[in-house]
Amino acid sequence: MSFVMQIQKTGGPEVLEWVRSPPGEPGPGEVRLRQTAIGLNFIDIYFRRGLYPLPKLPCGLGMEAAGVVEALGENVTGLQVGDRVAYAAPPPGAYAQRRVMPADRLVRLPEDIPDDTAAAMMLRGMTVHYLLRRTWPVAAGQHVLVHAAAGGVGIMLCQWARHLGAEVIGIVGSPEKANLAMEHGANHVIVGAGEGFADRVREITDGRGVDVVYDSVGRDTFMGSLDCLRPLGMMVSFGNASGPVPPVDPAVLAGKGSLFFTRPSLFHYIAAREDLEWAASELFEMVRTGVVAVPIHQRYPLRETARAHEDMEARRTTGSSILLP
Length: 325
Fold this sequence. Notes:
This protein has 325 residues and is α/β, with parallel strands linked by helices. It has helices at 42-49, 115-135, 152-163, 175-183, 197-204, 222-227, 250-255, 266-269, 273-288, 305-313, and strands at 3-7, 16-20, 30-39, 59-60, 64-72, 84-88, 98-102, 107-108, 143-146, 167-172, 188-191, 210-215, 229-237, 260-262, 296-301, 320-324. α2 (115-135) crosses α9.
């Protein structure tokens, strides 16, 4: 017997349903997993609300988990029954006790990385990898602004950017979260992303502005984030926690200093198998060596996913959260 959390329509946390759903047998190029820990991410809420389209309804949610290979389909190489693996990949459906996945989207877990840590770090950690190493390759001496710096992605961004030699400015929602961001690599912390945070960023950078802004908040912070950038700086909008960003006149970017703007997605950066393996291997190394810690501050039974979503939407969570099947 195996259960999943799924939705039959988009909406609030109340649309999540606990449903018995046998995973079936893996087909060619697929494996069946017994999942041991499941990551909880804001992208799951975007799918639940309908902001991002799902392939069909009813549909499961969740993009990230760790588990053990139970069965192999035909033509699967490089994996064996009993291997510990993790993933951050479509299709949605990680909110499950067991599921079938494409084998080429899985990576084997090193022995020294626990399942719960893997489930909490794959999507966030590989997001941080492409943000810092590919979208804007951060270099020593640069100034970096991180919104939601006490969240799961934010904490990893601060740690990894600091390791690369950047001067990290974090924005958080409360004094308690400020302490958390400082403990995990932020050189400076601004409490509150209300009106005027750009002025504070300019003060910290002696009027220059930052080289890059990593903004996962969206609508409420977008224009203020642009005002934080130096000429030729990069605005990276990679989330919509406060809602989608309204249409932007490209002339605004010219008027504020010939700025660059991108709206990236992890799944384009790891679409090729070699890019997935590179991102995962560098992430594993950062965690193993202690450069990046993965604090798991919330653990919920899978059956209580609705409560977990409520906590995330109310911004009651810090660090990473996981679901336990």
